[in-house]
Design brief:
The protein has about 325 residues and is of the alpha/beta class. The chain is built from twelve helices and 16 strands. Helix 10 runs antiparallel to helix 11. It is elongated.
């Protein structure tokens, strides 16, 4: 039985095939998107529904090269939209400026970056922020190798670490939130821009520890377990409630799309973004992230129509509350 996502994909493929007439391909306008694997499920769901609504007259391509890789393409004017699991950085702002690329910032959801272990792991149901730092900081490489070096009650077994690659916004956010500096991490871990690779790694290794976006955890709950994060008030598991009340910290975060302002001159990009914001709440929930308020999505459309360029996040999304997003974006 097809789920809604696979049904959308199949329907979009059938509709797109109707643009071929007796061996001649009708050139359809294309909306080009790349970037974060964390944001991918949301944008891909929107893209599928949009293509169905447009009956195959517009193509939307959605790639996964990580937030950093996506911004490099975006600032070279190669794509219309970048999926980003953290705000644009000062370095990326400068790169875009050098190429004359202006951008419209649009928060689209909240994510609970999720720490996961193998289901047979019975010892680390809760990990403190300090313990996480001791595991992941650069100084740990070659020194912190076994679980019992973090907590004597834990097994004298080698920790196998899994995480997103260096181009990932999730990697940058995690290291900034936990270690204190973006990209500051030990290097001896299994890295991948494909979160499904990380899921499989943790699911197949009793002594594994990994992290990625909440949606990939929910999709694989039978294979992996979430770990409660203790930031000083006891262990808190990721959930809609703990993200909303800001108790799941410092690993809850806003996620974004950035739109090339020049691309909004193209009707297909304008229509796609408007469709995105009008359907965001439903589709964000469907793919297991946490939607923003209707006011934020309406403000994104207003920013699109007015070509309101710039960012309000100053390169960091650490400890931003769900309720603060509207206030921040209203200041643009």
């Amino acid at each position: 039985m097809l789920n809604s996502f696979h049904f959308r994909t199949l329907t979009a493929s059938i509709l797109l095939s109707t643009s071929m007439i007796v061996g001649t391909v009708i050139a359809s306008p294309i909306v080009k998107i790349d970037g974060s694997s964390t944001v991918f499920p949301i944008t891909e769901a929107v893209a599928e529904d949009f293509q169905i609504a447009k009956r195959g007259t517009v193509r939307v391509t959605v790639g996964i090269s990580g937030t950093g890789g996506g911004f490099r393409k975006f600032c070279r004017n190669e794509i219309d939209i970048v999926n980003a699991s953290r705000p644009i950085t000062p370095t990326e702002m400068e790169a875009c400026k050098q190429e004359g690329v202006q951008y419209i910032e649009m928060p689209i959801a909240f994510d609970a970056l999720t720490l996961v272990v193998n289901p047979k792991n019975t010892w680390s149901n809760t990990i403190t922020v300090d313990e996480l730092k001791r595991i992941w900081e650069p100084e740990a490489q070659g020194k912190i190798t076994n679980w019992n070096q973090i907590n004597p009650a834990w097994p004298d077994k080698k920790i196998k670490l899994y995480g997103p690659g260096a181009d990932s916004g999730t990697f940058e956010y995690f290291t900034e939130a936990i270690v204190g500096k973006a990209k500051s991490s030990r290097g001896d871990f299994t890295a991948s821009e494909d979160d499904n690779v990380l899921v499989q790694g943790v699911a197949s290794d009793l002594y594994a520890l990994g992290f990625f976006g909440f949606a990939y955890y929910v999709e694989n709950m039978k294979k992996i377990n979430a770990v409660a994060i203790d930031s000083g008030n006891g262990g808190i598991l990721p959930s809609a409630a703990t993200v909303e009340n800001n108790s799941y910290k410092p690993l809850s975060r806003p996620i974004f799309i950035y739109v090339n302002a020049k691309s909004t001159d193209k009707p297909e990009v304008n229509e796609f973004i408007t469709f995105y914001m009008k359907n965001a709440s439903e589709l964000v929930t469907e793919v297991k992230y946490f939607p923003l308020s209707k006011e934020v999505y309406n403000l994104n459309i207003e920013h699109l129509n007015k070509k309101k360029i710039g960012t309000v996040f100053k390169g960091t999304g650490i400890n931003i509350k769900l309720e603060d997003i509207l206030k921040l974006e209203s200041s643009l």
